[in-house]
Amino acid sequence: MAKVLMVVSAADSLTLADGTQHPTGFWAEELAVSHQVLRDAGMEVSFATPRGTAPTVDPISLDARGGVEPGDADRFRALLAGLTEELAHPLALSAVDVADYDAVYVPGGHAPMADLATDPDLGRLLREADAQGKVIAVLCHGPAALLSTTQTDGGFAFAGRRLTTFTDTEEREGGVGENTPYFVESRLRELGAIVETGAPWTSKVVVDGTLISGQNPQSSDATARAVLTALAAS
């Protein structure tokens, strides 16, 4: 049985460009659907967060404010309810040995921009996972987690790699707009990543060796299935 480490942000707010606080957390569909696909395929999934802090679900990912239909919101709530105990007691990133896992999976929501992007423990974990040929999957704003591998000399562990992420267009259309503290797509391009994007709000997955990325919540199922394919081939 393959083991997947699902790294979840512990942030419940994001400081916007104007200094105000924007309530946030993980995006319900991205965590719940990804976890369901992986678990249904027989994967052993463990959660980890900075300091082992219980993560918060972004409230707008469960209602019309986030473009979520009532029936879908009910399904996501039911899936998350089944994970209550696991999410209440995640591993601390500082205690994780990446050698114990076959894949690292980072769902989004704006929250990863607030903590995972600069978390040194995650930076270590991702660099080690990449060096060991582990599958690394990042979804929607989850690619902000890759920013944690930026070195003080400006080097970026994923420079030259093909990936996708929540696009600048999507951020302007349905995110926090120009008040975002930074655009994840633009930041990754600046650091040398090769960002490939699809039409806004449609499923898009990019596979570059063991690096798998999904563009948005609509890509949740396809991203998790790409991870299953990669693990089956390894």
From TrEMBL:
Domain of life according to the entry: Bacteria
UniProt entry tagged with the keyword Transmembrane helix: no
Keyword Iron listed: no
Keywords, ordered alphabetically: Glutamine amidotransferase
Pfam families per UniProt: ThiJ_like
Alphabetical list of Gene3D superfamilies matching this protein: 3.40.50.880
Entry-linked CDD domains: GATase1_Hsp31_like
Protein name: Type 1 glutamine amidotransferase domain-containing protein
The organism of origin for this protein: Allokutzneria oryzae
